[in-house]
Here is the input.
Amino acid sequence: MTTTPSLPATAILSVADRARSTPKRRRSRAATWRWLVHNVRVALHAGAEEDHALHHWPEVLRELIHRAGVALVTTRDGDGRLHTQPMAPVKREFDGEIWFPVTAAMPLVDHLLGRPEIQVTYLDPDSSHRCVVVDGIARVFEAPADADARWRDRFAIWRSPVPRAEGPAYVRVDVMCADVWE
Amino acid sequence: MGIASLGTTSRGRTLPEAFAGAAELIQGIGVALVTTVDGTGIMHTRQLPNINTGYDDDLWFLANGTSPLISDLYNHPEVVVTFADRGNGRFIVANGTGRVLKDPARVKQLWHPVLASWLPGGPDDPELALIRVETRCVDLWDYRSDAAKPPAGARG
Here is the structure.
């Protein structure tokens, strides 16, 4: 399991404030199922970060996320432009968090430091038109220094080893809501 | 297994070699993912039926004129269109500007019977909106490729 580096309480609060000021998304007719994590905001605000892992994620959502090896990640840059790229999330049981190995040099990291809103789309590999669209707030963590073997393994997705100097890091997405599209 | 950027192109340029199969890829895809930003800055990704039959600097879509997608485009025309070839792990990601047009002649030309399940009003529905996405920059991504090239993003 992934270790969560501790964050100062002020950072946690600022994320929670941002989340609280985000209006609820309009419900779209085509979305078959949708889950809103009401308790994430409360949990973050109280500093109880792990609480939302207790949220009962529907099996269909967890199963689809597990099967999809690749995710499309959409962020916005400083000019408000949208950027989408495929990313490989860390393989783990879905509990309301998604982790991506990145390097600090990636433009994606710059975007997220400016605007932490992120959208992650998982495509069902066995269907031509089923997908899960997940909205969340992203935070960037430096890969722990004592976790060399682990991060080397996970960063192997980039096909070439990521040198330490490039700043191996993780993006953690705290999921706020998820839509399953059929 | 791995993620690799196979190439990038922009409007008006001759297509790089990597885009050789792009037209077939787009033609073979039933639904495209269209991402917009609403008036409050929240991103929305929706599936739209794909009526594009090849690679072009302009991409076309038909949608219900009352859908939130249309108001998003009026507020903030920035749009990303993703064509995902799930079987082969190929992704075409097109960034551009989405314009909502009224052009009944063009709608009739683009109409395909398969759209009837998405847009039951048919090609003569006055609510029907025609969207032209003027692409600015298009990336071709490969997942599962053996190409030893790291993604453009990883190179910074």
Observations:
- The longest helix of chain A spans residues 9-21.
- Chain A has one domain: 26-36+58-181.
- The CA atoms of residues 76 and 169 of chain A lie 19 Å apart.
- Residues 1-54, 157-161 of chain A have pLDDT under 50 and may be disordered.
